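COURSE: Structural Biology Practicum
ASSIGNMENT: Worksheet 4, Part C
STUDENT ID: 0417
INSTRUCTIONS: Below are two proteins. For each, the amino acid sequence is given first, followed by its structure token string. Answer the questions at the end about the second protein only.

PROTEIN I
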Amino acid sequence: MDNSWIFSLLLTIHILVTIAIIGLILMQHGKGADMGAAFGSGASGSLFGASGSANFLSRTTAILATIFFSTSLALAYVASEKPKSPSSVMENQTITLPEQNQNQQNQQNQQTTMPSQNKADVVPE
């Protein structure tokens, strides 16, 4: 079974959810932002602001975080089910030795069988 399209689909969803989570987190109003109001303007009733029920952004972030976690697990499972590839580039290669040229073989044979014609090789008697 070819899982490449499933892997591609999960990876696309994973990347889109990641971008959405980053955007939602950057848009949210931090709890520490109300600290200045607690020390002077009196707009906040407590030190870190009202901790009421979760608003739309925090609930959406929690849902996207759950989807992110699920796609992470699914990607890990699909990647582990892929067929194992060779661990080395040379693992499944056949070795072919280059054949010597016929002329080179003939020259080597002539050099080993013919007596030396050099005068320096002749030993005087």
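PROTEIN II
(use this one for the questions)
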Amino acid sequence: MSDYVTLANNLKNELKLEKEPVAVKIFEKEEDASAILPKFDSKARHCGMVYEAQNGKSFYSTIDEHTCLKGAKILGLAENDNDPIVPFLEKESEAIAYAPLEKANFKPDSVLIYVTPIQAKDLAKMYRVKVGKRFRGDFYAAFSLCSDATIIPMKTNEPNLTLGCGGSRKDGHIEDYEEVIGLTIDNLESLFN
């Protein structure tokens, strides 16, 4: 397992992030999540849970805690509509873990960071120099934190930028001047190791 404290600190220091990077992991079985984390004690959208983790909480959730059915479907917690425009997880899952990256006691499937356009530019340049690839943004302006920032990096093993959507900007507390980037641990290791 990577040193998530070091990766989180490198990311925060290099980009001068104001908000904590959030680790997200999708579990096929709830018992695997419940063995390492407490269950979320409220109800929220995925984007609201990302916000809770950004503010220091570590927990897992099931379909019962998710208030956005479309987001839950995208994340594999319920049968998906197979919308061809919105990337989704093809396999079923029972739980999703959330934690600040530096406190994660699981290997994240994706890491979400809130950035300004300048920070996004700096990360894109770092990615080009260290990895040798162009940084791309693939977004729909709907289902931004669940599909664009969580599922797309998982499926492509590439970072992805999203502008946020109405729900994620409200429930995820994304400021008007912020964008969100989803990365994998492999991406972070390529940037900082």
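ANSWER KEY EXCERPT:
Q1: The radius of gyration is 15 Å.
Q2: The chain is about 40% helix and 15% strand.
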